[in-house]
Amino acid sequence: MPQITQLPVIFWSQLFWLLLIFGALFFVIGRGMVPKILGTVEHRDRKISDDLEQAQKARDEAESTEAEYRERIEASRAEAMKLALAAKQDGAREAEERNRAVDADLATKADAAEAKIRQAVDKAMAEIDAVAAEATRQMVVKLTGKDVREDEARKAVEAVTNG
C-alpha cells in the first residue's frame, strides 16, 4: 500500500498542522468561549441562588404575616367573646331589673286588691249583721207579735255569730 510507505514522509507535516489546528481551537474555544459559558453558568447559578433566597425570604415574610394574622384573629375572637359575654350579662341584668319592677308593680296591685277585698268583706259583714238584725227583728214581730228594738236584735245576732 502506497499510503503506508508515504507515512514517514508526511507524518511530521500532518502532526504540525494537527497541533496548529488543535492549538487554535484550544485558544478559540478554551480561552474565548469556555470562560463565557462558565460565566453564563455562574451567572445562572447566582441568579437561581438569589431567586431561592428571595423565595425563602418571601416565604418567611408570608409565614410571619400569617402568624400575625392568626394572632389578630385570635385577639379579635377573644374580644368578640368578651363583648358577647358582657352583652349577655347586661341583657340578663336588664331582664332581672324589669322582672323586679314588674314584681313590685304586681305586689302593689295585689296589696291594693287585697285591701279592696278586705274593705268589701268588712262592709259586707257589717251589712250582713245589719240585714240579719233587721231580719231577726221582723221574724220576732211575725212570730211573736212583739216589737224588738234594733239594738237588741243586733246584740242577739252578734251573740250568735261571735259564739
Automatic annotation (TrEMBL):
<keyword id="KW-0812">Transmembrane</keyword>
<dbReference type="GO" id="GO:0005886">
    <property type="term" value="C:plasma membrane"/>
</dbReference>
<dbReference type="GO" id="GO:0046961">
    <property type="term" value="F:proton-transporting ATPase activity, rotational mechanism"/>
</dbReference>
<keyword id="KW-1003">Cell membrane</keyword>
<comment type="function">
    <text>Component of the F(0) channel, it forms part of the peripheral stalk, linking F(1) to F(0). The b'-subunit is a diverged and duplicated form of b found in plants and photosynthetic bacteria.</text>
</comment>
<keyword id="KW-0066">ATP synthesis</keyword>
<dbReference type="GO" id="GO:0046933">
    <property type="term" value="F:proton-transporting ATP synthase activity, rotational mechanism"/>
</dbReference>
<feature type="transmembrane region" description="Helical">
    <location>
        <begin position="15"/>
        <end position="34"/>
    </location>
</feature>
<dbReference type="InterPro" id="IPR050059">
    <property type="entry name" value="ATP_synthase_B_chain"/>
</dbReference>
<comment type="similarity">
    <text>Belongs to the ATPase B chain family.</text>
</comment>
<dbReference type="GO" id="GO:0012505">
    <property type="term" value="C:endomembrane system"/>
</dbReference>
<keyword id="KW-0472">Membrane</keyword>
<comment type="subunit">
    <text>F-type ATPases have 2 components, F(1) - the catalytic core - and F(0) - the membrane proton channel. F(1) has five subunits: alpha(3), beta(3), gamma(1), delta(1), epsilon(1). F(0) has three main subunits: a(1), b(2) and c(10-14). The alpha and beta chains form an alternating ring which encloses part of the gamma chain. F(1) is attached to F(0) by a central stalk formed by the gamma and epsilon chains, while a peripheral stalk is formed by the delta and b chains.</text>
</comment>
<keyword id="KW-0813">Transport</keyword>
<dbReference type="GO" id="GO:0045259">
    <property type="term" value="C:proton-transporting ATP synthase complex"/>
</dbReference>
<protein>
    <recommendedName>
        <fullName>ATP synthase subunit b</fullName>
    </recommendedName>
</protein>
<feature type="coiled-coil region">
    <location>
        <begin position="48"/>
        <end position="98"/>
    </location>
</feature>
<keyword id="KW-0175">Coiled coil</keyword>
<keyword id="KW-0375">Hydrogen ion transport</keyword>
<dbReference type="InterPro" id="IPR002146">
    <property type="entry name" value="ATP_synth_b/b'su_bac/chlpt"/>
</dbReference>
<dbReference type="Pfam" id="PF00430">
    <property type="entry name" value="ATP-synt_B"/>
</dbReference>
<comment type="function">
    <text>F(1)F(0) ATP synthase produces ATP from ADP in the presence of a proton or sodium gradient. F-type ATPases consist of two structural domains, F(1) containing the extramembraneous catalytic core and F(0) containing the membrane proton channel, linked together by a central stalk and a peripheral stalk. During catalysis, ATP synthesis in the catalytic domain of F(1) is coupled via a rotary mechanism of the central stalk subunits to proton translocation.</text>
</comment>
<keyword id="KW-0406">Ion transport</keyword>
<keyword id="KW-0138">CF(0)</keyword>
<keyword id="KW-1133">Transmembrane helix</keyword>
